Give the backbone structure.
Amino acid sequence: MVGVALSDCGRVDGPTPYALHAQAARRALADSGLQRSVIDGFASAGLGTLAPVEVAEYLGLRPTWVDSTSVGGSTWEVMAAHAADAIAAGHANAVLLVYGSTARADIKARRRTSNLSFGARGPLQFEVPYGHTLISKYAMAARRHMHEYGTTLEQLASVAVQARANAATNPDAMFRDPITVEEVLGGDMIADPFTKLHCCIRSDGGCAVLLAAEDYVPDTAKAPVWILGAGTSVSHTTMSEWEDFTVSPAAVSGRIAFERAGLTPADVDLAEIYDAFTYMTLVTLEDLGFCAKGEGGAFVEKGRLLRDGELPVNTDGGGLSACHPGMRGLFLLVEAVRQLRGEAGAGQVTKPGGRLPEVALASGTGGWFCSSGTVLLGRG
């Protein structure tokens, strides 16, 4: 990974989603120090009828390798794995991953409304009539974990509190004022047990990541961040086909990624985890092996997720506080790269002696734990 960037994020009322794609892409290319002409691979999802063809055309690109994989929030970790494989096979030299969304601005301008579901066709037709929304599916899973393992509302709330504390040092975060466990628990109920602050924010924003072959490293503006290993997994779409509500597909994607990288959870200095809801962070940490199954509540409640904690998680504030314009998985990769480069400013994670972190993990989740992509990144 040789270039990363965010577009304008948070409250962005003017630009279109295409403009946010372009802004992020230009910034990532500038960050890399490479010329646009090196890009022969392109990956995008979530915008246009023929994504990524329409977005590539808007950016003035004519790629010879494309990826339009769309598996929700984990799309970008899956695409990063595909891009790395394509580059290793000699099918592409430099692949641009880019995303942009005006989810918040569209609601404010009444260009769209909130959805109750992803649709009413296929397997979902058996759930939609009962009002089974995406949020309620995560809420059911959280309740099951609470029933099975004694996980408490206070423990779930502590995830949101720590995410907000991490956001406090991120000038790009949409919300930075501190919150308490009591404030999380006392908020408006969205889907039991989730109150408003258990749920991700709705923002605008975009980002981009440029991956390039090793031959280009001497020409890049900064030291690259290397993909050490990646794994992907899909689980279910119909809730009745989900064997265990307390296990996410990260249990599989994480295992594969660690095996391919030759690493263990103990080697990871920081983790960027998809957090549309507080429960996602907790159960993903379990499934990735940072703690045993059922021990996530005890693990998260002791401040371990803070920037200066035992395992810094979502160091930019995550989807709970920093930004969440839709499929947030690409933002995880951007933040991981910035941390490994030492570019996170006041939010920089350091190891003993002030050393920079060496290994970061990004784990994206799609749908209602339907898919997972986990990528391990390293310096040098």
Q: What stands out?
A: The first strand starts at residue 3 and ends at 6.
